[in-house]
Amino acid sequence: MTKTAELKGGSFTLSALHLVDGDIQKAADFLKQKVEQAPHFFTAAPVVIDVSQAGENIDFNELNQRIRQAGVIPVGISGCKGNIQREQAKEAGFAIMNAARHTKATETAETVTMEPTRIITNPVRSGQQVYAKNCDLVVMSHISAGAEIIADGCIHIYGTLRGRAIAGANGQPNAKIFCHNLQPELISIAGNYWLSDNIQDEFWGKQVVISLADSNLNIEPLAL
């Protein structure tokens, strides 16, 4: 019998939008601003919406529409309060997401067999993407604005970072980003990200190490 398709498990990084109240328009405006700040990263990106803090009266049809108008694609809802809310979300076209336990995700990330470090000697130019699967990534040159480097492990940048750097892409919380000149559009570790406007002036253009502490990004001077 000829195969027409296969259904397999996969591992993908999804952004999660946490609603802090029931104001859908305010959340959509916030999301639209983020899309405008980093369009290469967020435009048409999938997003999961956490409604655990948004109360019980949620118009899921409006939520779906507003999020799409902001420029991303809502794929699922998490944090529903009971079966009625879950049914309302499904009727509006959302998948129902069950958040994995952090400890389980951490165990999974730690059991991945790491490969030898990938080393890039040429500049990574605008529009290019470099992915170091199951390994660390070393870039000996610059990363231009509009370029993206991704690693399941740590990232080491010996030039200027003007594009996007995503470490711990498989959920590894112990991943770090080492950078000799920090001027990024976006930095991310294990799904936690900052845009350029989140970075303190004291670290802009400096040698730094970026790590994750209590699910928050942390930047410190790089001591050589």
UniProtKB/TrEMBL annotation:
An example GO BP is:
division septum assembly
Gene3D superfamilies assigned to the protein according to its UniProt record, in alphabetical order: 2.160.20.70, 3.30.70.260
InterPro entries assigned to the protein according to its UniProt record, in alphabetical order: CAP/MinC_C (IPR016098), MinC (IPR013033), MinC_C_sf (IPR036145), MinC_N (IPR007874), Septum_form_inhib_MinC_C (IPR005526)
Taking every annotated instance into account, which residue ranges of this chain make up the domain Septum formation inhibitor MinC C-terminal?
119-220
Its keywords, alphabetically, are: Cell cycle, Cell division, Septation
Q: Where is the Septum formation inhibitor MinC N-terminal domain?
A: 6-74
Query: Is Glycosyltransferase found in the keyword set?
Result: no
Q: Which family does it belong to?
A: Belongs to the MinC family.
Role description: Cell division inhibitor that blocks the formation of polar Z ring septums. Rapidly oscillates between the poles of the cell to destabilize FtsZ filaments that have formed before they mature into polar Z rings. Prevents FtsZ polymerization.
Q: What is the protein named?
A: Probable septum site-determining protein MinC
Q: Organism, per UniProt?
A: Photobacterium aquae
Q: Which gene name does the record give?
A: minC
